[in-house]
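Case study 2.
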Amino acid sequence: MYEHRKQPLLSTAKFLKRVARHWLAGFGVLALGLGGGTLGYHYIAGLSWIDSLLNASMILGGMGPVDPLKTNAAKIFASCYALFSGLAFIASYQYCSRRSFIACCIAFMLRSSESRIFEALRMKKFLLNVLIAAAVLTGMAGCAQIKKPAAQVRAAAVGLRFDQVGWVSLYAGEPCTPQIMFNFHGTRSTVWLAAPRRETDILTFAANKNQRVHILGRWRRGGQSNCSYVQVTSAELSR
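Prediction:
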């Protein structure tokens, strides 16, 4: 596919055509991977199109998921897609290590002498290692970031009754009031929950087992102006 080091370099026109083919191939692979992930998150996980695109981009880029997944089918898809993204990254690295695309670019710019071409070839592996190290460090930094809590639904008036069925997850981060311990994921919104000891045990079990739960409670307000939550009075596991 590429010239031997003893062969003359390509002309400018042929070299640019080769670069264009590489770009088209790269964008094609990216579109295939990103499109498949977006469709899977939308139709299997039930996320909106923009949320599906965001989650697929984060997984494909090595940063990790954004939205919680509520069904086993969605979790299986996300696991397969994460493995695909990792294997695609490794395959791309191995492809680049067998090819001399980067070295050819450097050699083309420094084509004034044959000794510089050999130097560019020796620099190829070093440059690839630097890129891989930067990508790994970026991924580690992304995984270390604390995710922001999901946007909360507009709170109802204090004292109004709350009666919904959905999924719960443990609250991540520092709540606006110490009583808040759970996120309740309803059909289109997320609500903060505070619960007494017995209901806390039920909600913790439901969060760990990813089971639906029926919540009864009353709307309450914390000390801050934007701190509205539901004080749980009853929590029952639901099919």
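Helices lie at 12-43, 49-60, 72-98, 101-109, 114-144, 197-209.
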